[in-house]
Structure formats: C-alpha cells, structure tokens
Amino acid sequence: MITKRGNNTWLITIYLGRDAATGKRDFYYETFKAPKKSMVEERERELTKRLKTPNTGPSSKISTVGELLGFWLEDLKDLGQAQERTIETYAGHIRKLMPVVGGLRLYNLDAYSVQEALRGKYTDLSSRTRKNLYSTLRTALRCGYGWGLMPNDVTAGIRTPKVETPEKPTLSFEQLQLLLETGRNYKHYLIVRMLIVTGARLSEILGLHWNDIDFETGKIHIVKTVDSRNRKEKDRTKTKSSKRNIILDKETLEYLRLKKQALKVVFFSKDERLVFVADDGRPMRHRAVELTFKRMLKKVGLEEMGIHCIRHSVLTNLNDGGIPIADILALSGHVNIDSLKDYLHFTKTGLNILDTLSSQTKWQTNK
After folding, report:
1. Which residues pair with 247 in a beta bridge?
2. Going along the chain, which residue ranges are E strands?
C-alpha cells in the first residue's frame, strides 16, 4: 500500500502476516522520496518480492536474531562442531545478546540496525569479552545468511570493539627452578612440577592415564585431556597437533614411579586409571591445582598469576634460550609459529645506527 505523505514523500506499507508469538498483524514501513508515483510503485514491488519471499533456510519459524542464535547453538551441538566448554561459552554470550538484539527482524536486518542496537552496551565488560560477544553474533548471522534466512550478509558492516590485550606475566628460568625446589611439600606439587617440566596444558597433564607413561623410555603420551572445571574426561586433545610425546627428566619419573607404587587396590587395572584424581576418585578440579600454585608463588615472594602462565613461561624461556622453533613446537603441540607466537614473550632489542653501520663497514672491508 502506498500513501502520499507530502511533497515527493510517500509511505510504503507491506503486510508481512501475523506474528507467530503474539498473533498480531505485522507490517513493514518505509518512507520513500520520489517525484513520481510510478517510482514508488517500483520500490513497492521490490520490497514485496524481497520481504514476502518464503524462507528457504532450516526453519520458517526463524524470523528474529534471537531465534537464529538459538537454532545456531543447537545446530553446533547436533553436528558436534564445538566442544562442551565452547558450547557453554556461546550459550553465555547468547544470554547476554538476547535482550539487546534478540528482537531484531531478519527480513530487513542491516548492519546499521545491529550496530545501533549494540552501541553503548556491555561497557561494564572487558574489551576481550565484548569482542567475543560481537564475534559470536557475527558467526551466527553469517550462518543465517548462508541458510537463506536473510537477504544480505550484514556481518561485513558490523564493527567490533578494539581489544587491549594485557601482557601475561611470565617467570624466569631461575624462578621456575625456585618453585621446583621449594614447593615439594605441597599436595599437588607433582602436577605443578609436570606443568613446569613439560610446558603442557593443565587439561593435558590431568588427562594422563598410567598407560600413557612409558617408564622405560621416560616418555609420556599426550592423547587425552580432562575438562578440569566440569571434571569430565575427554577422549581427545585440544587440536590434532596437540597429540605428542614428551620426554621427562629422571627426577619427575621417579616421583611418578613412587606415586604409582603407593596406589591403593582399585576395581580395575591401574594402567587404565587417571594419574591424578581427587579424593572422590573423579578428575581433579582446576581450582585445586591453581590454589597450590598460588601458595607456592606466595611462599617465594612472586606475584600472583594464573596457572596457564606456567606454559607461557616455559615456552618463552626456551625461545629466549635459543632453542629452535621446531623443537618448541614439538614440545608445546602447536601446529605452527602463528599459533605459538602468543606464548612467546620477549623484549625487542635493537642495535643503534652507529654500531650497526660500523659493523657493516668492517665486514665489507674484511671481505
């Protein structure tokens, strides 16, 4: 329907049917400026064709951003495309996004509408968390476009917040040695020791079974992990490249040998049991190990930091010590230098121009 509103100004009204949730009639309105009614009629036909074309995506019931977010999350679960922890993270993002963008209609969605809805929101969150919210939304919207639920891919126009990434604190080689020497009497010392010795992830050390340790060769085989927050075993590593072998030092092997000898009789083979379990026999909690690490730091007067900083510290010290990148990748389980670079913390050092050019001149003279 076309209604003249003024000089060269028209109101186009498109009936979209009844809202599935409320049953109320739903309309699309657009103010259009044109000198001739024929131009307005052409615009009306264009809108009608675009807005009243049946959805060709996975479900015609998906008409809002909120419904799309819900379907997208369930689809990830159904296809097994994300791990349980990742699904939980996405679910948390969606809970935050729903009050802000959940009601936006897909049929006329544009980047400006999304950006306007997000403006000024989530300012109480860290820049990293805000960016993650935006990224989750953009991923779901891109899927919606691929499913045919939206006429345009609006994600290219959605700008994400700038992230200020703080430098993770790291420990020097001497400080790591100090922790190994002074923390022997703590309950979970052996776990912290293995994190320092191997540079592995906590989930990988907690996921070790006794049959993953070869006492003859001194190797451990990292092939499984543990979700230490939900206390669940997982039959895979974080990535394919994370599956690897690491050779332990003799002292750590001896700690493990003594621990195995001290095991009480269990109802199944010792070799099939997790090396590190809580008092109730279930996988260790992340928090329990983190608490031990914090107490060890406090005892020797070092600043408090997260347990994942051990991994950063180990890899940084190896890099600073001139160890080849290929050897560091073999230890860390990263697939390439790009995935490793966030773990290498070092201070750039440049040589002043006088000494640089002087050295170059001497080299050329001696040729």
Report:
1. 219
2. 2-6, 9-18, 25-33, 213-214, 219-222, 225-227, 232-234, 244-247
Domain ranges of the chain: 2-51, 65-157, 173-343
Only one residue has tokens 């929101």, namely: 121
Give the tens place of pLDDT for each residue, 13-30: 988 777 655 677 888 888
CB neighbour list of residue 134: distance below 8 Å, 6 or more residues apart: 118, 158, 160, 161
Which CATH code fits 65-157? 1.10.150
Report yes or no on whether pTM surpasses 0.90. Answer: no
For the stretch 278-294, pLDDT in tens is 988 889 888 999 999 99
Q: 173-343 in CATH: which number?
A: 1.10.443.10
pLDDT in tens, 63-104: 899 999 999 999 998 888 777 888 999 999 999 999 999 999
- Which residues are bridge partners to 233 per DSSP? 226
Asked whether the domain spanning 173-343 has the same topology as the one spanning 65-157, the reply is no
Q: Please state, in angstroms and rounded to a whole number, the distance separating the CA atoms of residues 276 and 224.
A: 13
